[in-house]
Amino acid sequence: MTVELLPAPDRPGLTVVDRIEGRRFPLTTRRPVDPEPGDDGRFRDPVDAAVRCRVGELELPYVVAAYVRDADGEMIAECHEFADRELPDGEYEVELAAPVKVYLRVAGPLAVDSTSDEMRIAFGERRRVDVGARSFHEHPAATVTTTAAPEDLMAAVSTFGSALKTTSPERSFPSLRGHPPTVELGDALSVPDGVAPPATDLCIEVPRERSAVYAVATLAHYLGARVRPGPEPRLLADGDVLGVLDGPEGLEGAVTETLRHLFLLDCVVRTEGRYRLDLYERRRLEERVDLPLGELYRAPIAERTRRYLDVATETVDDLVPRWTLATHLSPAPEAAELLPYAANALSLIAVQRSRSGGDRSAPPPGYDAFVEADDAGAAGDAADGDRYVHVSGPDAIERAWVGDGRAVNANDLHPAGVRHRLAGESSEGPVEIALVCNDERMLAEIGDGDLYGDREELPFEVAVHREVSCDRLRSLLAEDLDFLHYVGHVERSGLICPDGALDAADLDAVGVDTFFLNGCRSYDQGRLLVEKGGVGGIVTHGAVDDANATAVGRLVAGLLNAGYSLRSALAVAGRGYAVEGRYDVVGDGAVQVAQSESGTPNLISVSETADGYEVAITTYPALGTAMGACYTPHTPSVDRHFLVGGELPPFELSLPEVLNLLSLERVPAMIDGELRWSTDVSPADLP
């Protein structure tokens, strides 16, 4: 079972455990509980597990968004920090936006109160409470086999909409989109029963070209649209042309603009539905245009899409959050297998174009040359015979690359890493981490293991290993570990140990899920670890000096411990150190070693103003908080919701408010241009 609700071993209460994603959420009670099997049909939303127990109140380890609905499913209360709500006798369902989605169903009075870092839900007296939980883990429901022929690929991409859990505007929430079927290349097209797109009456026509099919994959998934050949790329509803997908930046640019436009309007219109949140983007949009939001919410998707496209793009363009991911694909047939991954992440898609000529750019440290992805015809050969690529294209927080050569500024999205993550098995117990130091000069990077495991609500087992032999390192890499952090020398012959070099090519299998190989030129070894069974890891392209490597290593370790993905950890590290071209991610860069406490990894920037301080918060993606998720800063003077993605509008805060915000959670903070940890900042450190 993916999710379990278990009696807590060290305190009265329950612990919600997601074994696939390695996530936990404790619910503390005053007395020990004896949970009985529950009825998952008691909940309005699907749950993976349910129990029933008698409790008087529940204490949460930190504040999460709590949505209270009545017996009819209407949301009657929304609680965050500094909540103080008391509701009379009634039947209630409470949805907790925790690292694992939790639902409570109870009859009787209900009270929710919280401070900046604690939340309590009370039921008046000991009552029967149904508790349900659902994982954010999404697994494809089927596999579609296709040839490389464009029309077969169109049929495969047409199945992506089958994963949508709704065609209402709520599908803009990441948990309601679902993972499209996996795609495998074969000798003939084979589409399993039950993976047809929903009846949206939407269709996308594109030329019979693989690159065109790839470019529209995410849009087809989000709209639940069929893809078919046509004389020019265009979007249709009920046979009527809604728009031609072309413009100054071609098909890809038009698809990006259309997806951004439709998505933003869905996020605004969904506030008329089950989640009537005070959304910042809605306030701003209503200042500019008068839209019948309730009417649009109730309209069929084809009609709603038609009316969205009547709204001028420039009206909403600056309200769209910075996109989470841009995936750069080769037009080769093999890239088709990564389309479901990209669509599931709601990624913008750019397809590599071969051109003659092309400019060489400054090389990554230790190598000779790399080229622009959009000018890939002049592939420069590096000193080791590989081609290095610098990708450009759609703006996004994270980038991924699928194609020939090594991208020096994007996640090398190896298909094996994605397959290994999707095939991940349940793991028992805490997050298991191994720290290996085979270079005495870099012992400062791992210290005594205090880089990981300082999370009260999330158990860790951290083991430190020094001067590890080849056989011992081989054994560690074969273990079922969540993460391995290696510090030491790496050469072409392998990871350097006191008794020689361990070449990952010689390993039978890798049990470690994620890794950080902090040594010179570790890319080859990291890629082999992914091929042998790993999910993803951070590696280096060239030489890294010990001092910089130690600083980057400690920062990245802290970020991974705080719940940042591999890709986002490097993005944040780049704020303070020279990372681009030196460090990169191989495999699935979206994977997290640990869960984020607040649910949304973020970075806080503080600058002084005449009346106080201006605070800017940059949000980063994580499991369950991808495109479409909402975030509310933990400060009483800000009571609005914002769409996750990049930097939020700045806030004016007082000194006490800034200090309280910085103390709530250990996150990176830019203070007077210096990258710090928020909980280490004192009043004297502020500008």
Quick structural overview:
The protein has 687 residues and is an alpha/beta fold.
Tell me what the structure shows:
This protein has 5 domains: about 5-135, no CATH class; about 145-320, no CATH class; about 325-405, no CATH class; about 415-585, Rossmann fold; about 600-685, no CATH class. The chain is globular, with a radius of gyration of 25 Å. Strands 4, 5, 6, 7, 8, 9, 10, 11 and 12 form a 9-stranded antiparallel β-sheet that branches. Strands 28-27-29-33-34-35 form a 6-stranded mixed β-sheet, with helices on both faces. It is about 20% helix and about 30% strand. The chain starts with a strand and ends in a 10-residue tail after the last strand. With about 675 residues, it is α/β, with parallel strands linked by helices.
Keywords, separated by commas or semicolons:
687 residues, alpha/beta, 9-stranded antiparallel sheet, 6-stranded mixed sheet, 43 strands, 20% helix
Summarize the SSE layout with pairings.
Layout: E1 3-7, E2 13-18, E3 23-28, E4 36-37, E5 49-60, E6 66-69, E7 75-79, E8 84-87, E9 91-96, E10 101-107, E11 110-114, E12 119-134, E13 143-146, H1 150-158, E14 182-185, E15 202-206, H2 210-215, H3 217-223, E16 226-229, E17 234-237, E18 240-244, H4 250-269, H5 280-286, H6 293-298, H7 301-308, H8 313-316, E19 325-329, H9 339-344, E20 348-351, E21 360-361, E22 370-372, E23 388-390, E24 398-402, E25 406-407, E26 411-412, H10 415-422, E27 431-437, H11 443-446, E28 460-466, H12 470-478, E29 483-487, E30 490-491, E31 494-497, E32 500-502, E33 514-518, H13 523-531, E34 536-540, H14 546-561, H15 566-573, E35 583-587, E36 602-608, E37 613-619, E38 630-631, E39 642-643, E40 646-647, E41 651-653, H16 655-664, E42 668-671, E43 674-677
Parallel strand pairs: 13-14, 15-16, 19-20, 19-24, 22-23, 23-25, 24-26, 27-28, 27-29, 29-33, 33-34, 36-42
Antiparallel strand pairs: 1-2, 2-3, 4-5, 5-12, 6-7, 6-9, 8-11, 9-10, 10-12, 11-12, 15-17, 17-18, 21-22, 30-31, 31-32, 34-35, 36-37, 37-40, 37-41, 38-39, 42-43
Helix pairs in contact: 14-15
